[in-house]
Amino acid sequence: MVNNHFHALTHRNFRYYWFGQCVSLIGTWMQNIGQSWLVLKLTGSPFLLGLVGTIQFMPVTFFSLFAGLVIDRFPKKAILMVTQTVSMLLAFILSALVFTDKVEYGYILVLAFILGMSNNFDMPTRQSFTIEIVGKDDLMNAIALNSATFNLARIIGPAIGASMMAFLGAGWCFLLNGLSFFAVLFSLTRIQATPYVRPKKPGSGVFSEIKDGFVYIAKDRVLSQTLLLLVVIGVLGFNFNVLIPSFTQSVLHMEEGTYGFLMSCIGAGSLLGALTMSIRSKGGPRMRLILTCSVLISVFLSVIGFTRNLYLTGLALALLGVCNILFSTSCNSTLQIHSKDEYRARVMSIYSLVFTGTTPLGNLFAGSAAEKLGPDGAFILSGILAIIPIVCIILYFRLRKSAAPTQEEATGV
Question: What does the alpha-carbon distance between residue 197 and residue 367 come to, in Å, rounded to a whole number?
Answer without folding.
Answer: 41
